[in-house]
Amino acid sequence: MSERPPIIDADGHILERQSDIAKYLQPPWDRRTTPLFPGDQPWDHQLFHTRPGTQIGHDRYYEGDMSPDEQIAEWHRIMDREAIELAVCFPTGSGNVPKIHEHDFQVAVARACNDHFAQEYNARSDRIRCVGVLPLEEPAAAVAEVRRATELGLPGFELLTTGTERGLGDPRYHPIFAEAERVGAAMCIHGTRGSAGEVGGLKLANFNEVHCYVFPAAMLLQFTSVIFQGIPVLFPNLRLAFLEIGVSWLPYYLDRMDEHWEKRAEYEAPLLKKKPSDVVRESKIYFSIEAGESLLPQTVDYLGADHFVYASDIPHWDNEFPESVEHLWNRPDLSRDIKEKIIYHNAKSLFALDKVPLAA
To answer: How far apart, in whole angstroms, are the C-alpha atoms of residue 253 and residue 191?
Structure first.
């Protein structure tokens, strides 16, 4: 196989420390000693430390106790070694901000998170771009934070699939999407297993079952809400992404949505004048692929190659980098042009990276 071009990683991660974020809390919240994010069932996702995540040395792993400078240094080493031109990094815990019941505190923590990402990551590396988080349950404050954090240089925002009072297509969130469209920020709906009870995960027995089920279940819920409530129609220039559950579900689920649209759209999806599959095809919507998906070529054919991006998921325990990118690049069932779009060009469009100076 011919030499592959550089990568733009559309979904890597940092492991933020709450102590680093707390330094940016404004009074009176800076006197709080409580955790910044609501807790969840303490599953052993590392499986007795047999699945510790990304290895960064002979016996060292990318761990959650690393400082921002240490994480940037490790990211740069990985990027140099694997020809990653730029990494868009998502928080690991801060997406849980909308779950904070005290809404004033929710707003304060979101601002502190975004200041932390902007000053301790983005300002210290021209190759890493952290996205921000929003106090979604205070829509007016979230609108202001979209504007403020975008001015700080954050290219988009993480919206977790659990933790909101309503589906993300609900009208209460429309002003947030409208502001993101206006300022050019990507809105990235990101999979999670946290708050598993929202989609029935509490009926399951262990982390393996919860992680396998809750990611796609919660994503399907939000995708259903966003599409049937007409977010891409109301905000046609908004760039949306659905990340971290793969893409092979799309033909099946969009066929199902099309069937319901045909029977009930006049009354229950009036904004959709076209079937959902066509709305998605014609909108600025992106999905992160899994390199080993057996039906990836058929899914790309179904929607078109411009909708798919590559995500390393570094440093999480279940990432398969660098094997994943090599597997993708060596697949004989995808053309070189399609693979270049997936690993580079589409992420550049999703995050409007032409506006950001990239390191060679």
So the answer is: 17
